[in-house]
Write a structure and sequence with these properties.
The chain is an all-beta fold and about 300 residues long. Helix content is about 0%, strand content about 55%. It is globular, with a radius of gyration of 18 Å.
């Protein structure tokens, strides 16, 4: 199960985020150098910079397939949201909204949602490229957004250790739970919308049902869990950590199946910051400035 297939290199600083692209065999990366780079699964040794912003990028999202133009959103460390049209990349807008960095972005239909370092959860009108509503959830950073399309509920992980549940239809707070001892860096819904997974600075991997019932808590890593990703079939969960490793878990019971390490598996040399699991393989990016493809 999973071995290193290819390495994508060329960025000049740490990498913090990955996303899909506008064609199935491509994906995007971004990080401390401000470059948004596109990579091809069929030729991973060569990336192409499609846009460049003047700040570190913490989050990426792309427009839905039905959107009239191929748009990329990039959240920067200063709280700005860059709207980049791939057909006219030099004409992109940077809308400064959050007073601190944007750590996660979700694009749903005509709406975009951002999680800010200022503790604000914001709804945007994507057609007008403007913020329309904000909810002050915490006095600490919001780090991760997971949307459940079955129930219409967002789960938001925060640096105060809480998970906040927001109803999309009226932007109301349904519940909040003290989930981790320290920051919650990643939240993720199961495909059936019944289970929420969370990982945090306390290095614990947890699963939840009914908002606040903790069904499993695993001491998963030596240091912070930075991100979680599910396999396309929903059977396996991957966790990325500051301890440089990636671990693969059985999703239904969080039993450990495999560890991908620096030396034994030719893995990352520094903190693994983001994952993306596609039909083509598991992607990981790191402070070591590379993206690894695992198949």
């Amino acid at each position: 199960m999973l071995s290193r297939h290819a390495v994508c290199s060329g960025h000049k600083a740490a990498l913090y985020t990955l996303s899909g692209s506008h064609t199935p065999r491509h994906f995007l990366s971004a990080g401390g150098d401000g470059w948004i780079t596109e990579w091809n699964f069929d030729a991973p040794e060569t990336g192409r910079v499609v846009a460049n912003v003047d700040s570190k990028i913490f989050a990426l999202a792309i427009a839905p397939l039905e959107w009239p133009e191929p748009m990329i959103l990039a959240g920067n460390m200063l709280g700005g949201l860059h709207w980049v049209n791939r057909l006219r990349p030099t004409e992109g807008r940077n809308v400064l909204h959050h007073s601190k960095g944007i750590y996660d972005i979700v694009w749903l239909g005509n709406e975009v949602f951002t999680a800010g370092g200022d503790g604000m959860f914001t709804r945007w009108d994507a057609t007008q490229q403007r913020a329309v509503e904000s909810f002050q959830l915490s006095n600490r950073s919001l780090r991760s957004i997971a949307y459940n399309p079955i129930t219409g509920i967002f789960a938001i992980g925060a640096s105060d250790g809480n998970i906040y549940y927001i109803k999309k239809s009226d932007f109301s707070l349904i519940s909040q739970v003290s989930a981790h001892q320290f920051a919650v860096f990643s939240v993720l819904w199961s495909p059936d919308g019944q289970i929420l997974y969370s990982g945090g600075r306390d290095a614990l991997l947890k699963s939840w049902v009914n908002f606040n019932t903790n069904t499993s808590s695993q001491p998963a890593h030596l240091y912070t869990i930075n991100h979680l990703a599910l396999s396309p079939d929903g059977q396996f969960l991957a966790s990325a950590s500051r301890d440089k490793s990636i671990k693969i878990w059985r999703a239904n019971d969080l039993s450990l199946l495999k560890v991908l390490e620096t030396f034994r598996d030719n893995g990352h040399l520094n903190s693994v910051n983001r994952l993306r699991w596609t039909d083509d393989g598991l992607l990981s990016c790191s402070d070591d400035r590379t993206i690894l493809i695992w198949t």
